C-alpha cells in the first residue's frame, strides 16, 4: 500500500504538530490537510478527500459522533480513525455508532498508530484494548459463561499476541507456519466470540485466560 492521504483533526496545535511529524516519517503517508475543529474539518476533508481522517472527539462543534456522521455523509469513502484521550461510554459509543472504523487512545505506541492507519485505510476495524472491552461489555452486559476451552497451543498463540507479536513473530517463536498461527487465531476468535486480536486479548484478560 502506498500514498495514503491523511487529514489530522485536533484543536491542540501541539498535538497536530506532533502527529504530523510522527506520521511524516512514513514514506507511504501523505498529510494533505489539518483542522482545529469540526467546521474546519468538514471543509478540509471535502476539499482533499483523504483516505483516512485522524480525529479527536471533544473540539469546537460539530464534534464527536456528530462530526463523524457529517464527514461520512459528505465523503463516504473516507475512513475515520478516532485518536483521543477519552474512552468512556459517552465518547466511544456515539463515535462507533456514527461510523468510526477505529478508536485509539493517544498513549498508543507510534508503531501501533502506524499499523492502525494502514488497517483503517484497508477498511479493517482497529480498537484499543480498553475500548474493545467496553464495547464487548456493552453488547454482552451479562456475565459471560465459562469460556470455551482453548487448547494449549491456542493459549500459547494468544499469549504471544498479547505481547504485541505479529503473526510471523508468533510463528517463529513456536516453530510453526504463519498460516497455522492464523488458523489458531480464527479458532480463538470463534471460541471467545470476538472479532479481532485486540478483542481476543481483552476477553482473555477478563476471563483469566492470560
Automatic annotation (TrEMBL):
What Pfam families would the database entry show?
Answer: GerE, Response_reg
Coiled-coil ranges (or none): none
For this protein, the record's SUPFAM superfamilies field holds: C-terminal effector domain of the bipartite response regulators, CheY-like
Extract one GO molecular function annotation from the record. DNA binding
UniProt GO BP: phosphorelay signal transduction system; regulation of DNA-templated transcription
Ranges of residues in domain Response regulatory? 5-121
Q: Which domain of life is it from?
A: Bacteria
Which organism's genome codes for this protein? Answer: Actinoplanes italicus
User: InterPro entries annotated for this entry?
Assistant: CheY-like_superfamily (IPR011006), NreC/VraR/RcsB-like_REC (IPR058245), Sig_transdc_resp-reg_C-effctor (IPR016032), Sig_transdc_resp-reg_receiver (IPR001789), Tscrpt_reg_LuxR_C (IPR000792), WalR-like (IPR039420)
Protein name stated in the entry: LuxR family two component transcriptional regulator
Amino acid at each position: 500500500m502506498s500514498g495514503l492521504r491523511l487529514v489530522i483533526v485536533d484543536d491542540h496545535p501541539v498535538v497536530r504538530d506532533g502527529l504530523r511529524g510522527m506520521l511524516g516519517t512514513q514514506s507511504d503517508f501523505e498529510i494533505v490537510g489539518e483542522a482545529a475543529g469540526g467546521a474546519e474539518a468538514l471543509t478540509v476533508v471535502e476539499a482533499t478527500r483523504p483516505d483516512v481522517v485522524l480525529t479527536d472527539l471533544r473540539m469546537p462543534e460539530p464534534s464527536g459522533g456528530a462530526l463523524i456522521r457529517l464527514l461520512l455523509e459528505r465523503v463516504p469513502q473516507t475512513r475515520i480513525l478516532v485518536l483521543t484521550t477519552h474512552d468512556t461510554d459517552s465518547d466511544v459509543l456515539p463515535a462507533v455508532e456514527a461510523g468510526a472504523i477505529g478508536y485509539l487512545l493517544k498513549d498508543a505506541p507510534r508503531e501501533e498508530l502506524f499499523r492502525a492507519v494502514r488497517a483503517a485505510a484497508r477498511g479493517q476495524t482497529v480498537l484499543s484494548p480498553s475500548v474493545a472491552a467496553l464495547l464487548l461489555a456493552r453488547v454482552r452486559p451479562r456475565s459471560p459463561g465459562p469460556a470455551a476451552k482453548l487448547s494449549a497451543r491456542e493459549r500459547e498463540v494468544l499469549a504471544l499476541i498479547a505481547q504485541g507479536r505479529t503473526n510471523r513473530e508468533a510463528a517463529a517463536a513456536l516453530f510453526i507456519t504463519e498460516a497455522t498461527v492464523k488458523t489458531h487465531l480464527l479458532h480463538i476468535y470463534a471460541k471467545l466470540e470476538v472479532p479481532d486480536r485486540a478483542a481476543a486479548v481483552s476477553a482473555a484478560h477478563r476471563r483469566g485466560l492470560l
